[in-house]
Amino acid sequence: MEKELKTMKNMERAAVILVILVVATLTYTQVMVNKVAAMASSGEFAQQAGSAGNEAASSQTSVIPTGMPRLYGEELGVSYDDISPYDQRKADEAIKRLAYLDNYIELAPEELERYIKIGMQISCEYCCGAEAIIFRNGQAACGCAHSYAMRGVAKFLLREHPNDFTDDEILEELGKWKTLFFPGQMQGKAAALEQNGIEFNYINLASNKYRGIEQGLSAGGGMVGGC
Known about the structure:
The chain has helices at 2-42, 44-59, 72-76, 88-104, 109-119, 145-160, 167-181, 183-195, 202-206. By secondary structure, it is mostly helical. The longest helix has 41 residues, at 2-42.
């Protein structure tokens, strides 16, 4: 009998402890729920999440241009968004549209002078490896589709918008298209520029000014559109 009473007391004690634990757990859970709800209503939670997201994004900021190019985008029916590794067919069509301009437009002497100055500053080194997309006489130095497209953009802007774009602005446009053609390599080069304290712009990124600075760093490869 005494043994049975002792067993019952132990069971009662265990039941009391279990009830206490359950109550404590429920209380803690409710406190945390109330805290999260208060943070959400005040916007604090969103701010903290946004801050963490911004920190992650800052180290992986994309260099890919998006949207419609100024002036000539609507005129030619092309967008930076046309060049995507997820739609090679659309990318090839856009590249062909720009490349056609290289063969179609014959530059006047004063246009050719600017064209040579611009074209000698940028290359297609990830594809054909040429020193620049043109020779010093203005003739094509690389036969890949990417070079044709960049030359086409330069010729069109010199012909149709000679006063709307400076030489550097045209070079920047070529740099944007080159970045779209070689997104992995350009992302790696952007990281190298940042590590060396060099300002980001599309001339620094895509022209020959800092060509090869990304060598030795881990960078993506591949290209968008046919070579």
